[in-house]
Amino acid sequence: MNGIYIHIPFCNSKCPYCDFYSYRCKEDERRRYVDALIDEIKTLRRVGEFAPKTFEADTLYLGGGTPSVMSGEDICRIVEEAKLKFNMPPTSEITIECNPNSHIEDLIPYFKKCGINRVSLGMQSAVDTERRALGRQSDKKRIAEVIKLLKDNGIDNISLDIMLGIPSQTKESLKETLDFVINCNVKHVSAYILKIEDGTFFDTHRERYLFPDENETCDLYSLCAEALENADFTHYEISNFAIEGYESRHNTKYWELENYLGIGAAAHSFVDGKRFYFESDTEGFINGNKVIFDGNGGDCDEYIMLKLRLKKGLDIGELKKIYGEAPAEKITKKAPLFKEQGLVNFDGNHLSLTKKGFLLSNSIIAELI
Ligand code: SF4
Predict the structure, then answer these.
(1) What does the pLDDT read at residue 110?
(2) Closest atom of ligand 1 relative to the 11 alpha carbon
């Protein structure tokens, strides 16, 4: 089944590492943006150029930006409209990204009303000094309070984002974050390595910070993977860990090259092999900007690259069926070399990255394809 992504490009402040399309907006703009989202969901006027008018889905993801800066009424309007339009079954996974600093207390009744059943919290670290370095305002106590609030209200499918490579982060401080995560009994963790993007505050003020170097960051990643696996999380994707049965159904569609429709400024779609997106321009979206065709997606290289992000890896027989003999032969020839170095598991028909391989995934995948 398909997935739907709705982008909310608003945040109350800008984090020093962020290069996403997000900014603080005015109330009037927010209202007009929600109206434009609802209109596009109802009519599929623009995405309909590439997607069928009847598009059924079983996952909905409200991402950003910070969707939790919106009012409960607006969130409900968007979700209700999407559920109706995309004929979403009651078992659908409906996720919203939230900042723990947001007015979650006020939003929870609306989450329950419209059926939001998964919350992804941008925690980043349980160490308050690290959170402050990342421009995050809420403290560890607040994060624990939000998790308890969600659980007390029946939303126990909670994902925490944590970051590796934060300025001044050490193995000891990461252990503090991991202990916190594990003690909170959440179902899912996304652990991202901090990348300093051009033009961000971290990029232009590098000298002010003590960033862990590449080796130290690798150690942090290994520590993270080991601690979470010891706590019964499965490392099901390079950056993602879940208690069995709580893998992100929506994000899995991206890695499995399934269809997803993105609505809103800066939202990307992949439908029936075609990629298209809305420009990063809220006013443009409100004023009816069309989607931009971004070429055909889902070619063989992309298929291999995405499959190898997953713990379950790549089935060579399947690859052969879809893309023919040549790529399968190439992989079969190259894989034993990586196996010798302990970077991949390979039995002749199945290829997956080892833990060590996950750390070097970009170069291994580049070599293989
Ligand atoms: S909350 Fe997320 S989207 Fe908003 S500025 Fe921070 S990193 Fe960027």
Answers:
(1) 98
(2) 4
